[in-house]
Design brief:
Elements lengths: L8 H6 L13 E12 L5 E16 L4 E12 L10 H8 E5 L2 E7 L2 E8 L17 E2 L9 H4 E2 L1 E10 L2 E10 L23 E5 L12 E10 L2 E11 L4 E7 L4 E7 L2 E12 L3 E11 L2 E3 L9 E3 L2 E12 L3 E12 L11 E13 L3 E10 L5 E12 L2 E11 L14 E9 L1
Parallel strand pairs: 11-15
Antiparallel strand pairs: 1-2, 1-26, 2-3, 3-4, 3-5, 5-6, 6-9, 7-8, 9-10, 10-12, 12-13, 13-16, 14-15, 16-17, 17-20, 18-19, 20-21, 21-22, 22-23, 23-24, 24-25, 25-26
């Protein structure tokens, strides 16, 4: 059995550098999982009967050069047993094969380098994305899956520099990945507003060409001082999120939407501090250049440019009896608010998470995320049972409520019960 590499002081400060994260001789690891979801809206239907297998391996190619390979395969029987969904949706969501993290690591002095398809996580709060701006996401189930399952790795070159308390990170993404929102007719497709009496059509998404003008790049600096972990970053990119541009066809009385990706600048930062049984975390991102849908249906392209500041702050409490409680507040502020867009100038919200372990192998959790501007919320209770070594069973529910224009209310008819069985190897 290979001996474990010793940890260094910088590992304790910043986590393991990229060159150490792929261990040698680890064999094949991963999981096989079956997931079932029953949407309770009328007509009640199976919305997921998916088998997922994800596997990977890592190792070394001589001194100082390490590698990692990974892939995932899905097959969803729900899109083969009924005709509830349009043919384009069934084709899009029945089968899926994708490469996960596939990269090479090497080091030189205080520098660590990673080349290939990789996750880049610059922030992580409970339930929603804020400073986590780099990795694309599979949003065909909205924000319901676990974040590590939602994230899509980017083809990137990353260099990290360590010197005492300083950690610098340089990122270049020559060919970017973007959020996967599925096809019109799927349960969580982000439909756009249309006035009563008009038709609507969605044309295929337009993604940026693979050229020098659409490459993504960024810089992140972080430090740890007196227990305060502080970071700041700049990221220039073609937005991983879609903006729906709109045209009007007078002959057919139809509004035509097409998803595109704006070229944006993002300036952000994170901060965290461990106070023993309480951990403080906060994140903020200022975005310049993103467009938003306007309800002014005379507008030529259906969007207006808005600069936004998104921030979130939370406290994580460790309580007796292996219980954890997390409370967060968050806000999106529109710096040059246009009165014709759907959100208010300041969109405020909060989330509450309660997690408890009991009977050695049982775990219960409830997550509630809500707007403060309107009655628009998501409630997610679930129960997990590790019934044997490497086996886990989950039973849960996703409940949406709110207006059709709300972040959660637009999926008010998509309440569902779900269950998962996973075997890890």
């Amino acid at each position: 059995m290979a001996s474990e590499e010793p940890r260094t002081e910088r590992d304790d400060l910043f986590g393991e550098p990229v060159s150490k994260k792929a261990s040698s001789g680890s064999g094949i690891k991963g999981f096989t999982q079956f997931e079932a979801a029953r949407t309770t809206a009328s007509p009640e239907h199976w919305s997921k009967l998916r088998s997922r297998t994800e596997f990977g391996s890592s190792g070394a190619l001589g001194d100082g050069l390490k590698w990692k390979l990974g892939a995932r395969f899905d097959y969803d029987f729900a899109y083969g047993i009924n005709d509830y969904y349009p043919a384009e949706v069934r084709q899009n969501q029945r089968t899926n094969f994708e490469l996960r993290e596939n990269y090479l690591d090497f080091s030189s002095g205080n520098w660590d380098f990673r080349l290939g398809k990789q996750h880049v996580v610059w922030g992580e709060m409970v339930g929603l994305f804020f400073a986590d701006v780099v990795s694309a996401r599979d949003l065909r189930e909205f924000i319901l899956p676990e974040f590590d399952q939602m994230r899509t790795p980017q083809w990137a070159a990353r260099a990290e520099y360590f010197n005492d308390d300083l950690h610098a990170e340089i990122l270049w993404i020559p060919v970017a990945s973007y959020d996967n929102i599925g096809k019109p007719g799927s349960d969580f497709y982000p439909y756009q507003p249309v006035p009563s009496g008009f038709n609507v059509r969605y044309t295929p998404e337009l993604r940026p060409e693979h050229n020098a003008d659409n490459m993504n790049y960024g810089l992140r600096l972080s430090t740890l001082k007196n227990g305060w972990d502080v970071s700041g970053f700049y990221y220039r990119s073609s937005d991983i999120s879609q903006t729906f541009y709109r045209n009007y066809e007078a002959l057919t009385n139809t509004f035509v939407y097409q998803a595109k990706h704006d070229r944006i600048h993002q300036y952000g930062g994170t901060i965290s501090k461990d106070f023993g049984d309480v951990v403080l975390k906060a994140e903020g991102v200022y975005t310049r250049g993103r467009n938003f849908t306007t309800l002014d249906f005379t507008d030529s392209d259906g969007v207006v440019r808005q600069n936004t500041l998104d921030w979130a702050a939370g406290l994580d409490f460790t309580l007796p009896a292996e219980t954890r409680f997390n409370a967060q507040v968050f806000q999106r502020q529109f710096m040059n608010h246009d009165s014709h867009i759907i959100p208010d100038k300041n969109e405020n919200g909060y989330s509450l998470l309660l997690n408890s372990k009991y009977f050695a192998n049982w775990e219960a959790q409830a997550l509630f995320i809500s707007s403060m501007n309107r009655s628009d919320w998501l409630f997610r209770p679930k129960l997990a049972w590790n019934f044997q070594r490497n086996w886990r069973w989950v039973l849960g529910a996703d409940v949406f409520h709110g207006p059709q224009t709300g972040m959660f209310g637009r999926y008010d008819s998509m309440d569902r019960l779900y269950s998962e069985v996973r075997y890890s190897f």
